[in-house]
Write the structure tokens for this entry.
Amino acid sequence: MGFSAGKRKSREEEDTTVSFLASEFPMDDLSDDVLERVLSWLPPSCFFRMSSVCKRWKSSQSSKSFKLACSQIPTRDPWFFMIHNDSSSSSFVFDSTENTWKNLNRRDFLHHRRRNFIPVASSGGLLCFRCSISGDFLLRNPLTGSSRDIPSPISQDSDKPLQAVAMTTTVTPSSYKLVIISGEIPNLSFKIYESNSDSWSKDQELELAKNTDSPLHDDSDTDVGTVYFLSKTGNVVIASNNLQRSPSKQYSSVITVTDDAEIVYFLSSYGTIVACDLKKRCFTELPKLLPPFLEYSIDLVECNGTMYVILLSEFFESASLRVWRLDNNREWVQVGMLPPALSHELYGKKGDINCVGGAGNKVLVCFNASPPEVYCRYFVYDLVAEEWSELPRCFKDGEAMDFVSALSFQPRIEATA
């Protein structure tokens, strides 16, 4: 396991990539179909400068056949859409391929009428926003601006609080699902929005899974009859209160999809991990990683169909940031650890981690400490290479930007909401 610093790639180098293709290869001799297939393999950041190369490239940029060629690229390295410390979205993304910050600089990214929309989920090339007032959803491609409004299936006066929002997409054919889980344990239910039908399913109840060795969290967990647990920021709260999370992470969850299962994972108000099997219509609580009396911050991510847990804990005057996954025997296996020299720098900050998994094998960890000392760090872990890297600071008008969390998406210009 190693640690490496992010390497920047200049705008001039990106422009050279496009110019090189245009000058060194006889592109004019290629048919339109072959040309578009070649251009579809360009780094996504080059797409928006195709129009400045020549008229033919400019026309290819907006053609349906070019977008079809782009859709046939199996996967693209993730871009991380960053979220400010006031839980609002921004136009800044981090390109994990080129290790550079980019400002999408779209004045109409979210119209002034949509300022109450908070990013809550993502999948493929789309981001999902939820209105903090009406509860309605907005699906949007951050690169092209393609969007769709989706009315919430839950009324504002509903007695079933929203617990989780998850999203999954397929590239070919292009479609997506939006999953919401509502209610209180043990009375949970879910609804699914299908883009193909442009409608929500009926409310479907989730039952406690049979043959599970993980009892539900209840008042019998302590001798005195009152359950106490640690919030994500390490504060002790009573179980009757909700786990306090930033608005952008309040309904955070991950979904894993296999041939025989679709499972949504989310953190309950007690800080436990709840797994909901949508096909079997059942749920269970997973084994705990640490005893409840230890201070820790926890979050969930998904990479390549597997759910991972990122855990920041403090013990013996030191901090530890580790990555875990659940094996087939329902036992937690460590798959990564931030080098101690770096994790020790997080000790005593009383910080929180918010994490997101990207397409492929990359996990972004956003560490944020609360005032009076504002302290932000951003680490990326490559699950295959077993290497950590730290993102460079992002600056706007000479001032460093602070982000509390992020969403991961694939930069796909062909993705439509």
